[in-house]
Amino acid sequence: MIVEQFAQFGPALETLAVELRSRLSAEDAPGQEGGHGADTHIRSGARLELVENAIRRLECGEYGYCARCEDEISYARLKARPESHLCGRCGAGKS
Ligand SMILES: [Zn+2]
């Protein structure tokens, strides 16, 4: 993939990270009902971790490559989920 194509994912990832962080701190606020809220919290936390990971990878030039097979991750996939760290094959083949 061409480096310029990565550049647009930087701001997208930063926005996503800010969004997820504020969602997490809102969920931390006392007086919120429990139930499925805790589940959402875990999901937001896990996604934030992926997003922060992707930002680090972007900074060190590893962004856009599959963490498992080191293949390029398709542009369409990154556009849909900029925090993707697996290519379509590895991401789909969870067993
Ligand atoms: Zn892969």
Show the helix and strand layout.
Blueprint lengths: L2 H5 L1 H20 L8 H23 L15 H6 L7 H5 L3
The site of zinc ion has 8 residues, from helix 5.
If you had to describe this structure to a student in words, what would you say it looks like?
The protein has 95 residues and is mainly alpha-helical. The protein has one domain: Four Helix Bundle (Hemerythrin (Met), subunit A) (Up-down Bundle), CATH 1.20.120.910. Helix content is 62%, strand content 0%. The chain has helices at residues 3-7, 9-28, 37-59, 75-80, 88-92. Helix 2 packs antiparallel against helix 3 (37-59). The chain is globular. The mean pLDDT is 86. Residues 66, 68-69, 71, 86-87, 89-90 line the site of zinc ion (ZN).
Our count of helices gives: 5
The CATH first-level class comes to Mainly Alpha
Q: Total domains, how many?
A: 1
**Ligands:** zinc ion
SSE arrangement, N to C: HHHHH
**Which architecture does the CATH hierarchy give at level 2?**
Up-down Bundle
What is the name of the CATH topology?
Answer: Four Helix Bundle (Hemerythrin (Met), subunit A)
Largest β sheet strand count, sense and barrel closure: none
> Would you identify the CATH H-level superfamily?
DksA, coiled-coil domain
Q: Tell me the total number of β-strands.
A: 0
Question: What is the overall pLDDT average?
Answer: 86
Rg from alpha-carbon coordinates: 15 Å
pLDDT < 50 stretches? none
Give the structural class: mainly alpha
- Give the N-to-C terminal Cα separation: 28 Å
Q: What best-fitting shape do the alpha-carbon axes yield?
A: globular
Helical content stands at 55-70%
So what's the oligomer here?
Answer: single chain
